[in-house]
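pasting input
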Amino acid sequence: MATPDDDRNVVILGGGFAGAFSARYLHRALPHDVSVELICDRNYFVFQPLLPEVAAGTINALDAVTPLRLMLPKTAVRLGSVREVDFQAKTVELLQGAKRQPVIRHYDQLVVALGQTTDLSRTPGFAEHSMTMRDLADAFRLRNHVVQCLENADITDDEDLKRRLLTFVVAGGGFSGVEVVGELADMIAGALRFYPNVGKHEIRVIVIQRGPRLLPELPDKLGDYAGARLSARGIDVMTGTSLREATASAVVTVDGEKIPTQTVVTTVGNAPTPLMRSLGLPFDRGKVETAATLAVPGYDGVWALGDCALVPLGDDGYAPPTAQFALREAKCVARNIAAVLKGQAPEPFDHSTRGAMASLGHYQGVAEVFGVRMSGLIAWLLWRSFYISMLPGLSTKLRVALNWAFDYVLPRNLVQLDTREERGSYFVHLAKGDVLFDTGNIVDGLYVVVSGCLESRVPGGYEDFVRIVGEGDHWGERSLVEDFKTQGTLTAVEDTRVLVIPRHDFLKIRDSLDVVDNYFKRIPDKIYPPAIRARRADGE
Amino acid sequence: MATPDDDRNVVILGGGFAGAFSARYLHRALPHDVSVELICDRNYFVFQPLLPEVAAGTINALDAVTPLRLMLPKTAVRLGSVREVDFQAKTVELLQGAKRQPVIRHYDQLVVALGQTTDLSRTPGFAEHSMTMRDLADAFRLRNHVVQCLENADITDDEDLKRRLLTFVVAGGGFSGVEVVGELADMIAGALRFYPNVGKHEIRVIVIQRGPRLLPELPDKLGDYAGARLSARGIDVMTGTSLREATASAVVTVDGEKIPTQTVVTTVGNAPTPLMRSLGLPFDRGKVETAATLAVPGYDGVWALGDCALVPLGDDGYAPPTAQFALREAKCVARNIAAVLKGQAPEPFDHSTRGAMASLGHYQGVAEVFGVRMSGLIAWLLWRSFYISMLPGLSTKLRVALNWAFDYVLPRNLVQLDTREERGSYFVHLAKGDVLFDTGNIVDGLYVVVSGCLESRVPGGYEDFVRIVGEGDHWGERSLVEDFKTQGTLTAVEDTRVLVIPRHDFLKIRDSLDVVDNYFKRIPDKIYPPAIRARRADGE
């Protein structure tokens, strides 16, 4: 609730570069009686550019993130998820986890720094089958997935499956895509000696870039260099193309090339977060329009910056969504809020780029700093130093630097850090002809067709028993009784979207809800002809 | 499938102390033409006694585990989950993840080392509301949960909730319980400086031990010492009692004392794993009966050891389920398998304990080694050295030792390593009178009563609208349309078990399955009187 001493306070939404550094600079710029509160739905700052290295096991997860409370000792950090903002009443409503009672916080000045998310809906199958690289959870997921692929490839007898398991596709060849593909290739190369049945020639790591060269943000020469270095390390650099579709077992390019794979990482498709979208602020190109001062015109005491904001930049168009600009904008917003609270006029944001850099993995990087181009180890070291310089406290800096040094001499860690939470239901996207189940496979859940069509075919004495599973139909009901092996195949007749309800999840619901229980009790009689039922009764 | 060169092979089930060290010793004992394969459902060896330190953030997760492939370079490590063993055909059927095609492996000699699990069904509410400490996932879960409690306690205005959030209960005062409670207290004490609104006096850390003193495995004097040290650090050591029940908001002791808490860690209730149970081997006291040679009588070529086995020990009864004995048994089973393959007779297992040790956290430990009792820092160092000695390779040993040394000088890391997988449905256990929802709380899912009874009470103009939600009934249907705030309360009339289906999970199912969709379309008309419906229509 709004209390009197909240009268001159600043609330920051978001704990990324823009939000966290706004808090830091605000404490320097503001008088001590103005409180600063930062609301974030995770309790740490994540250095996103290092996430590929976490995924690859090059660095410890904890060395790529910093607890916000440690980084911002003077800021009141509030872990919660924002539900809505009332710009008239100047309040933020949020949920705080343990109790589902919404909490209202008043603000005098509001800094909106909510970043961006990845819109996976633009490419069919991406929502179901691609991974992103935005948060620590993403890094863990990719790491576990890649280790799982190697483990399975090492023990399978199925050559097609093995090829799929050992093909890794990264969509997008910008900073993030290049960093992911470089680290991924490095991790896999280092891991191979532990997988005696996987040969180096069987690995295929691909980066797919729509434009003519990698790293379009950098000068052509550096983009070419990056492409050449990655190619020299055996990475397949596909430029001038992009992905049209992903399925459970392949990706398809816009040129129609089908690449069988179990691993797609997408680094393209920036979009506003759902919260950002719901705030109702004026949007342009998926971002909040701000004045040159970073204030949001027409909204009293509201500022926006970082990746979620469209910040005009003199004659140069708009500020790019990079950490460098977020830091500069944070400095500017802190100065401007301090000015406004003193009754002075805010000043426009102005910054010209100092340069850019990217890591290619394998101790190689590319950089352009103050117009000077660098590549190789020197650029890579520069890139790492930049991160170290941002860490709070000498002891943390030292620990991170030492762990990095150790990594240079030690084998990468291959532990699957699986947290094994029981998963709820999820979707899969199948292309026409994809086989969802083959004879003898174990069925461990219920499969519901959301759109498209499946064909279930069970070989019989005189003729096959064929059942069409169309929209709204389901398959695998017997898994509600036991995990069972299929007697036949289940194949997509056309492009099909399927909801998979894992057995453990569905049993809980069926056993609790009478309507579901009654429905599934009647099912077997309806969909199987007597012959099939009889065979099943025999325990076949 | 069984191949000819599988004729003289050893298959090990399980990658804990017993399984992993069996593999190591087998390679030393066996001729080179006998292959050894280890099947495990995780790809790393976990040093369980260090898990409390991972949970507390004292050590990196990766320093408490070792990839099996790194630890056992000569063993074929197969990541998979065993479905069944055919002791007649001498085959193991397992699932390998990517493809749901079961794989059959032949064995000549089979080493069963599947460990134990925790049976949470013995105490009501434990399955729903307690955490265990057996795997890396458990350590992450406890860590995230404790950080979440501190974050929420720091920002709540609700004194009752704050007390619950800051009370931490560990059930069991054996090795594991003492290590968990010691590390937990230490972690919380170290974290407090980052939580300005949480006072030291508000923290309550409790260990509950059924017997008269902690660490019954050690001499009385060391158990007393451990109790005194933990008490001196502010830990509440409750002996001579145990827990009768856990609910969403409290635990109740057998003496009827109710302790409000959100955190219960259970370290008691050892039980066979589901797989172990399903194998059909002769059981006694929840373990496989073995001969003195570790062979399972009546089963050709089957051996059992470690926590899952009841190993006779001369006149002393049975071998205790400790790492020390698992290592010795591993050595014995390796020798005996080698003997049998050479046509010689196996020898009985014989080992008398070298001693035992436990960490109390805070750089304190207790130990009895070769009859010499030790306590304090020296026992703690001994305890750590024991682990270091087991790590593979000098460089790994060095890294772990250095990270430990760093921890001595650095603040603990408070990052919540939440992997944020979308959770499926789950159960909650409520005691009579527990309030599940209070006026104004956000409802984010469907609540189905499995057993017991809830009362929904919405204040009205003339009288309250009361609805009884009994077995099979559900509440919160409106959450299928939107997250909404309750207009009234939802309270347990008696002890009640509720299935919570989170909104995101349920929407997928409803939108895909017509039977569920049709059912919930009709619901509002049935359960709400017109006045309530009208208010809802007004958007109240």
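fyi Chain A has three domains: 4-41+80-116+271-351, 120-268+356-409, 426-537.
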